[in-house]
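Section 5.1 Outputs to date
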Amino acid sequence: MTFDAPNPMSHLDAPSIIRTKRDGGVLSDDAIDWVIDAYTHGRVADAQMSALLMAIFLRGMTTAEIARWTAAMVDSGQRLDFGAAPGVR
């Protein structure tokens, strides 16, 4: 899989997001939303996501980045409702 060329209407692309985090920067909400959406739709290669995750592991994330990443992951897929499931709550 290879990275799709950046959308001319978008300023976001995987290499610049990886570079930002690698260099100790803080990822914007737009960057986090874009990378999660692009990865889950196959527009970011596994190797690129691995590079970003390594940069995150080495540089860390702010509380705001973690909250946005979590929200983007939750919003990226189908949510299941277990409200009617029997059991202790």
